Amino acid sequence: MTTVHTPERIRSLADLEAVRALRAGDIALRHAEAVNLAEAPEVQILVCSGTGCQSNKSMSTVEALQAAVEEHGLTDRVKVVPVGCFGFCRVGPVVVIHPGQTFYCEVRPQHAPYIIRDHVLGGKPVQALLYAPNPREKQRIEKMMDQPFYKGQHRTALRNCGLINPECIEEAIAGDRYFALAKAVLEMTPAQVIDELKRSGLRGRGGGGFPTGRKWELAAAVEGDTKYVLCNADEGDPGAFMDRSILEGDPHAILEAMAIAGYAIGAQHGYIYVRAEYPVAVHRLEIAIQQARERGLLGERIFGTDFSFDIDIRLGAGAFVCGEETALIASIEGQRGLPRPRPPYPAQKGLWGKPTLNNNVETYANVPYIVLYGAEAFRSVGTHDSPGTKVFAVAGNVMNTGLVEVPMGTTLRDIVYGMGGGIPKGRPFKAAQTGGPSGGCIPAHMLDIPMDFESLTAAGSMMGSGGLIVMDDLSCMVDVARFYLQFTQDESCGKCPPCRIGTKRMLEILDRIVEGEGTMEDLDELERLAQGIKSTALCGLGQTAPNPVLSTLRYFREEYEAHVRDKHCPAGRCKALTVFRIDQELCKACNLCARNCPVDAISGEVRKPETFVIDPELCIKCGNCAVVCKFNAVVH
Amino acid sequence: MINLTIDRRPVSVEPGTTILEAARQNGIRIPTLCYLKEINQIGACRMCLVEVEGARGLQTACTVPCTEGMVVRTNTPTVREARKLVLELLLSDHNIECPTCLRASNCELMQLAHDHGVSQIPLQGAHHEAHLDVGSGAIAVDSSKCVLCQRCVAVCREVQGVSAISVTGRGFESRVSPFFDVSLSEAACALCGQCTLVCPTGALTEFDETEAVWRALLDPNKHVVVQTAPAIRVSIGEPFGLPPGSVSTGQMVAGLRRLGFDQVFDTVFSADLTIMEEATELIQRLQSGGPLPLITSCSPGWIKYAEHFFPGVLENLSSCKSPQQMFGALAKTYYAEKSGIDPANIVVVSIMPCTAKKYEANRPEMNSSGYQDVDYVLTTRELARMFRQAGIHLPDLPEEEFDSPLGIGTGAGTIFGTTGGVMEAALRTAAAWLEPDSPSPKIEFQEVRGIPFQVREATVSLNGTSLNVAVANGLAAAGWLMEQVSTGQKDYHFIEIMGCPGGCIGGGGQPIPARGPEALDEVRLARIASLYTIDERMTLRRSHENPAIQQLYAEYLEKPGSERAHQLLHTHYHARVPAGVRRR
Amino acid sequence: MTCSACKGITPDDPRFAELDAFIQDGHSSADFLIAVLHRAQQLFGYLPEEVQHHVAAALGVPPSEVYGVVTFYNYFTLTPVGKYPINVCMGTACYVQGAGRILELFEKELGIQPGQVTPDGLFSLDVCRCVGACGLAPVVTVAGEVHGKLTESDALKLVAELRERAAADQAEAGAAVATVGGESQ
Ligand SMILES: Cc1cc2nc3c(=O)[nH]c(=O)nc-3n(C[C@H](O)[C@H](O)[C@H](O)COP(=O)(O)O)c2cc1C
Ligand code: SF4
Ligand code: SF4
Ligand code: SF4
Ligand code: SF4
Ligand code: SF4
Ligand code: SF4
Ligand code: SF4
Ligand code: SF4
Ligand code: FES
Ligand code: FES
Ligand code: FES
Ligand code: FES
User: Fold this and answer.
1) pLDDT tens digit sequence for C143-172
2) CA of B576 vs chain C CAs: smallest distance (Å)
3) What CATH number does the domain located at A32-150 have?
4) ipTM of the shown complex
């Protein structure tokens, strides 16, 4: 990577613009329309270096591409650039070639020579590496933006992810980073910054949806020489990884936003609390902070003004509850991450007893955009009460899992069947869980629900951090509720009895139900406990822990009743309540099930359907046979 | 003032007052479990939930400050249901064995369940198994009765500055435990028992030795003598409904005789003896140049703390044993000889305000009589139980006198039971010795009288010698003072330290106030006042005037600091593992 | 037990000096407790009593509180982990993609439950909640390295590979010992 030395320390807007000018061309190229690559004056090969792709050895792919470039003597014309997560980690390592946005999937080092020879030199995309929306069909899609996964997206928070080299501050600046900070510090008063934010209607993306501008205003109003700005990068919702993606792909966005927050509320210091499970994000942040300090964008007298601000990183250590802001504060102070009651709110008494502002990563990622382009631009997408976009981490039984950023109010159907590409094997959609362990299920009849704060809450779920788990008809809703409750029970800090003991009791009831030992009274008790815990628990963890149970009870009560009354799990997930057998009427004797049974419990002669049987003694009820049978002949 | 409405009644309070305190000031008692004013306001137990108009969800009255115009409801169906659910949940993970539990008579959990009409515990499931730690021989820990209110942790940290215990683990596995879940006996714990005073349940109690004492009393071959610490006489009435601080010396003596003790003696006697030895030591050290300051050593909680946390000051500690141990050593030597009883058959029982005294009596070096000097130590609470078992209702008894000679004491020995008392007693005698010709020797030294939780300093001038003295009570204060001394920031000649807030009257073995820990401050002050009243009314107010002590020296010990005195009445200290770590 | 981590840690263990260097490098106040414990665990592999007491004394935090912190956070471990610590993600995305089955498979193949170490000290098994590679669910990490889209046969292959690697390491070490032995004759 070449480093450019003008100007060393950025002291003015002009300095900043000079740095942007250096790399503006690179960024423009990455937005450019297709041209014949063989004739393009410059080619950039973007390789994902996010956690997902790195785990698929994308860094070896980078090396192989670089080697191939060198081998062909193309170093002047072709640049290999590691960039952040594209959100479509499932098909990684992802490689995108500009100009032309050709999107390659699962690019291994051995593919590098073909990409250089056929594509860069020959001008013909390597068909085999292109994205295939349906693995069984030949159809390939070349351009990133033509893929259903990217088509409906609107990228604000993720705008630089997959576009810039996150370890290069100059590329970040070319991607407009620090221009919002410059504008705030040089042209706006703190009150104006807060006002802009308030008018934007931005609401916290960390779960609560609290109006961000209002929060800043409160923190600004508290008297105090020492205040703190925190960034909550604990990203606890298992299955959600948008914060990780932003930190890895565009770390300067967070630094910039925190500095703006510092300016707005009168704080000089910030802390980013990152979960220890994100080593790549931590590493990128460390580099970004170092570079920003070197360039004078953090530290004393930013842009030559009286405003000084610096940021440090603090690591979590594996406790979901530390995402709760008062627990997070305790953890930064080096203690057990126990939440404490509010009031006093962190804005009044936070870190070390000082006024403290805390926001989520994705919330911060929206801030520079709002400051730079104005509240109206931000409000131009989304709904009235939930303006802007939201990143969802789509997972579960859906073709395209990954991160999608869409305008608030986009329907669940658009996400699942549009970007998500529908449910594998054409199975029916049963429900989607949003809001992680604090949220609830959206049933099939509500597929057209607009995904915004109000609608999700009204449906008995919540936005949460944007986890979106899609479930097909083979998912058991009791099992799902049990899974989430197990999670919250494991993660309860133990401070207050409703959560420490109450969720344990709920879990025990659910355990009984999935074991076939539940009673109808258990269902009432479950509901009574759920309501009671919601109103008595100390913090959000306990207060929302019963939500998955309540919402599944609300929409899928008959499934609970089937478990309790009929001792039957309709989805065939709960082992104690499921017996797999082969319906010989339907069986075509293809032997696929037998080949997929891990314990050889299935026997039968090929082409003799009447011979196919499952030995109930051997069967471990893994359900593989039911999944693989193309004729739905395995029943339970 | 802030004006608000609680249960439809207008109320005005100082700014910063919590809803809970505001309600209490106005006669509404919101139930609490984890609350300890200013020490533990953490909102953990959820018992104090109330409705606040406009607030999202129920609020904990113990943490939320009153605001102007606030409308609070403390007794609505929602609130009652919420509290009841919390209690049901707590009880569903509780080793319920009330009839056999040491706290049955004043268990806050049982009381709350009763008050809130918890008539059944519908919830079943995993619960913490009984796990008893009695390794210390002083404090019994039963985590299966713990409600995780953290009051013990807070007291140990805030009041005692020891932090021997913390909440460890997480979620359902949370527990209160020392470092690495060792037994309290292997932790850097003072065994002061302050935690047992604030525990709302039977999870932390004194280690009960009443059975062993009953056995000794019933053994026809044993001659069982009992000594009672000065602080007992002003607290033993409380479990029998007498107001805090009631003086019940005579009834207590009568009660002990009825229990079957062969001789009823007074630790005040050996407190006076301690002064003789300690004042001598002080004068010697002043004359021979040290090591100074001399620090008192009659509080075993403080001694154990110093051995863990301040091994550097051990040489400053007075080598005098505590009055309890001096008594034990003399009971099995001097008294045995005098009364012609084989010391092997003498059983010495102490009634102490203190759990650390149990531990002290078991220290291996405490055997200078050739036997274990003190056999059993009972706390005030255990004595009250024995009285009840024996059908003795203390207030009904006539007043009786201690036996002699080990039952004779002075006012100086009596005030040993309060912070500042040892200092004052020592100064009384020192003044007499240093100013032998003074026409009106100074008796009261108000300037060193301790105040609970406070460190007091004074400069006392005795016949031209000016003494810098300090008095600390509670181990947090002790730790602070020792820090000052060991870093050379303060220069003292003489320091008194008592391990418990207020001194022994606030000891970890004392009766738990009927109103719970919130009454502790008030009770401590009442007990202190009573000790000073006893002292005032006595004719003998200086230790060296004690005729029994004079006789003891004449007949047996020769003079203070003699070789025999040293052999029987003095001891040594050693650094203890694990080393304590003080919060920086 | 033959694994080196169990031999006990003496106060003159050179790793204490490294830890102290880290503490003195601006991490000596109580609020750095978690950071210091991270460093300690990196150095020692786990957080035994001696190490926790050392940290307590160095930061001026009562040992019971250090222990309270260690036992609160999942990341900290009181027992040595295996040479190849296997962590099965049981986060939502992984769970719905069959992480439960993968876990069962490891349990069976290794003969241990989560939280345990194989008798040969080679593997330890644990579960975690999301490493942020949810797009690749189900995910397993081995000594911090992420393995995504794991099928049951991938899982078995992984164990076999690691066993081979360990055997190769051992053979190499054995060969070294043999040569040394040979020379001494
Ligand atoms: C149990 C629990 C876990 C939470 N985890 C997170 C988290 O991982 N990340 C996050 O940003 N907010 C989390 N929150 C929400 C935070 O407490 C806080 O509201 C948020 O960080 C505020 O930022 P925002 O206003 O920008 O959303 C959690 C809350 C609770 C109760
Ligand atoms: S609700 Fe749960 S996580 Fe929150 S304070 Fe209570 S026990 Fe802890
Ligand atoms: S459920 Fe699993 S174990 Fe049972 S027969 Fe089918 S594939 Fe085999
Ligand atoms: S996979 Fe289905 S059709 Fe094929 S043998 Fe098995 S049950 Fe029959
Ligand atoms: S602690 Fe209270 S509720 Fe528990 S057994 Fe003892 S008396 Fe009963
Ligand atoms: S006191 Fe009466 S009601 Fe209570 S247990 Fe005894 S006999 Fe039963
Ligand atoms: S006995 Fe004293 S030092 Fe020990 S845990 Fe209790 S309060 Fe702390
Ligand atoms: S031991 Fe007693 S005081 Fe301590 S937390 Fe448990 S119940 Fe509360
Ligand atoms: S002050 Fe009294 S009660 Fe407290 S530890 Fe010392 S001797 Fe015991
Ligand atoms: S990590 Fe490469 S696309 Fe997400
Ligand atoms: S007394 Fe208020 S929460 Fe415990
Ligand atoms: S016990 Fe002797 S006076 Fe305290
Ligand atoms: S849920 Fe397994 S990596 Fe996120």
Assistant:
1) 888 999 999 889 999 999 999 998 988 888
2) 15
3) 3.40.30.10
4) 0.95
